[in-house]
Amino acid sequence: MRVVFAGGGVISLLTAVECVSAGHEVVLADQSDIPFTGATSFDRHRVLRALHPGDLATTAAAVGAHHAWIEIEHLLSTAFYEQSGALTAIPAAEATAARDLLNAAGSKAEVFGAGELAAEFPHAGFVPGTGAVFESHAGVLLADRVLTACAGWLRWNAGAELRPHRKVIGVDADRAEVRLADGGILRGDAVLLAAGPWSRELLAPALARELVLHRQTMLYCDVPPADAGAWAATPAITPLGSDGGAWLVPPVAGTPLKLSAASACRVGAEVGGPVSPPWWREHLIDTFSELIPGFRR
């Protein structure tokens, strides 16, 4: 089978790797470089965790993703999964059920009381009195390395063809065809459209209306040398237990500390640049100034 991919983000690249591994041919077109540093999925790091309270099936599937990422690391011969674990702030009355859910799903989990959490991670900014559940089958994905490794693996594989700087302007799913801005047509036995911020015009109107664009502002921070050891031993924390849903990704493998909050996520009307309006930056600075001891500009 020959599969034509429209888009070069993480979903396209990972699916293309899976298709080639299964013996299929793939051709992948993107409007820019492959990988594209401006893509939604291109970032320094992303959190991988499993806990979905009250949902065993989804939690088990996320635990399976942990193992799948380890397999992909071996396949691509690239290290991009830092297994730092993850902490989720949770009310004390729900902590035991969350731990048991994770264990039933195949992960390893333990409960931290408020006192234990404050003693173990005094620098992390947990809301006083907050407890948490720690899951070991979790951590930080180095997203830019994932994309680069997938593209490199495909580029050297005879079953794959990458077409950078070939913008897709139309998709005919019934005929398994993709139309390009330069007038070219890519044909195959199946088409995969990796829907993203630039995909709305490629979808049928009914589907396009369901594609919602979200914008998320984040802070990338240098950690003081005196605190580097403590932060290096810190798991991903989503969330910290604050009203605004503050969360953080620790500095791993040379990355900065990454800070954001659910309150800094909003629906956007159109694709914008990488710089957020100043108000959102100030909102996050105010948020973490109240949470992380010694946090400053």
Automatic annotation (TrEMBL):
Domain of life: Bacteria
UniProt cofactor(s): FAD
A Pfam family hit: DAO
SUPFAM superfamilies: FAD/NAD(P)-binding domain
Keyword line: FAD, Flavoprotein, Oxidoreductase
Domain FAD dependent oxidoreductase: 6-295
One of the record's GO molecular function terms: flavin adenine dinucleotide binding
Record's keyword annotation contains Ubl conjugation: no
Name of protein: FAD-dependent oxidoreductase
Organism of derivation: Amycolatopsis alba DSM 44262
